[in-house]
C-alpha cells in the first residue's frame, strides 16, 4: 500500500520581535505532507529550493527548461536561485543549498514539475489562497551533508 501525500502551498507565518529588531519567517510556503499531517522530510530540499524562487516568471522558465529535458532536446539543465542550485535530468532532479542547507533530495521529474507549477500558481494568486494537491509517492530519498 503506497502512502498518500499532499503538496501544500500556504502563506508564510511571520514572527516579529521588535525588541530584538527581528522580523522573520518560521515556515516555508511549500511542504509535502502525509495524511496524518506530518511533513515528509524527504521532500524538504525540493520544497526549500522551489520556495526560494519567489517570482512566478522564473518558475515558468524552470518549467520550460524541464520540458526541454523531458522532450530529450537537452540532457540536463542547471537552475539557480539565491540560495540553491538544482539539476534537472529526465530521471531525477537533485538539489544543493549554497548555505549548508544540504544536498541530494532526489525527486522525480514528475514530482518536481508538479511542485513548481503548483507554487507558480500560488504566487500568481494575489490573495495567496492555500493550495493543496495530491502528490505522487516516489523515491524522495534525501542525503544531508
Tell me what you see in this structure.
The chain is an alpha+beta fold and 145 residues long. 27% of the residues lie in helices and 30% in strands. It is built from three helices and nine strands. The chain has helices at residues 44-51, 56-70, 109-124, and strands spanning 5-9, 14-17, 22-25, 30-34, 76-80, 84-89, 93-97, 103-107, 131-135. It has a four-stranded antiparallel sheet. The protein is globular. The protein starts with a strand and ends in a 10-residue tail after the last strand. 28% of the residues are buried.
Largest sheet: 4 strands, antiparallel
- Average pLDDT rating: 85
For the largest sheet, list the strands in their spatial order.
5-6-7-8
Ends apart, CA distance between termini: 31 Å
Uncertain regions spanning at least 5 consecutive residues: 139-145
List SSEs in N-to-C order.
EEEEHHEEEEHE
Outline: globular
Helix content: 25-40%
Number of strands: 9
Q: How much of the residues is beta strand, in percent?
A: 25-35%
The radius of gyration over CA amounts to 15 Å
SSE-based structural type: alpha+beta
- Tally of individual helices: 3
SSE arrangement:
Elements: E1 5-9, E2 14-17, E3 22-25, E4 30-34, H1 44-51, H2 56-70, E5 76-80, E6 84-89, E7 93-97, E8 103-107, H3 109-124, E9 131-135
Antiparallel strand pairs: 1-4, 1-9, 2-3, 5-6, 6-7, 7-8
Tell me briefly what this model is:
The chain is an alpha+beta fold. It contains three helices and nine strands; from the N terminus they run ββββααββββαβ.
Index terms:
three-stranded antiparallel sheet, globular, disordered C terminus, 27% helix, four-stranded antiparallel sheet, alpha+beta
Amino acid at each position: 500500500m503506497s502512502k498518500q501525500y499532499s503538496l501544500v502551498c500556504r502563506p508564510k507565518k511571520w514572527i516579529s520581535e521588535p525588541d530584538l529588531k527581528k522580523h522573520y519567517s518560521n515556515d516555508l510556503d511549500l511542504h509535502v505532507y502525509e495524511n496524518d499531517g506530518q511533513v515528509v522530510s524527504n521532500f524538504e530540499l525540493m520544497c526549500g529550493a522551489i520556495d526560494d524562487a519567489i517570482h512566478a516568471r522564473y518558475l515558468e522558465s524552470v518549467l520550460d527548461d524541464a520540458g526541454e529535458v523531458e522532450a530529450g532536446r537537452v540532457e540536463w539543465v542547471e537552475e539557480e536561485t539565491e540560495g540553491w542550485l538544482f539539476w534537472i535530468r529526465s530521471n531525477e532532479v537533485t538539489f544543493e543549498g549554497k548555505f549548508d542547507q544540504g544536498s541530494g533530495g532526489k525527486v522525480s521529474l514528475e514530482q518536481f514539475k508538479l511542485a513548481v507549477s503548483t507554487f507558480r500558481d500560488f504566487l500568481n494568486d494575489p490573495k495567496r489562497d492555500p493550495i493543496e494537491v495530491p502528490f505522487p509517492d516516489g523515491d524522495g530519498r534525501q542525503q544531508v551533508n
